[in-house]
Design brief:
Radius of gyration: 18 Å
Largest sheet: none
Structural class: mainly alpha
Strand content: under 5%
Number of helices: 6
Mean pLDDT: 85
Order of helices and strands: HHHHHH
Helix content: over 70%
Low-confidence stretches: none
Shape: flat
């Protein structure tokens, strides 16, 4: 950015895409793993750790946008944004309970549905 090869907006977009795509790909890899890797906890842990490692790019993208929008009110905006995110994420356990209570689907299919809901 100092040498002006790329604009600040495009740097933020790049890091935002990296922070979103990494965990989504990791969840898809776990959900649709081959049968030989379905019960392998080492595979699941390694893939999820790799995906969540890329989630750290949010610090360079989303967290800085509050400061860009309103430097004097960045803390308040962050609090409101995190509150909205918490309310949305508190619905996920209810969805998981409903999917896992469905006895007509196989366990693998149930977890595929849960992981796909998480990627949306």
């Amino acid at each position: 950015m100092r040498k002006e090869y790329i604009r600040k907006t495009n740097v933020r977009r790049l890091f935002n895409v990296l922070a979103m795509i990494g965990p989504a790909i990791a969840l898809c890899m776990v959900a649709f793993a081959p049968d030989t890797l379905q019960g392998d906890t080492k595979f699941v842990v390694a893939v999820l750790c790799g995906g969540l490692f890329l989630n750290g790019a949010f610090v360079c993208s989303l967290m800085n946008s509050y400061i860009d929008l309103a430097p004097n009110y960045a803390g308040t905006l962050l609090g409101v944004g995190n509150t909205v995110a918490f309310i949305i994420h508190s619905v996920v356990p209810v969805i998981n309970e409903q999917v896992l209570a469905n006895g007509s689907l196989s366990l693998t299919r149930q977890w595929q549905i849960i992981f796909m809901v998480l990627t949306v």
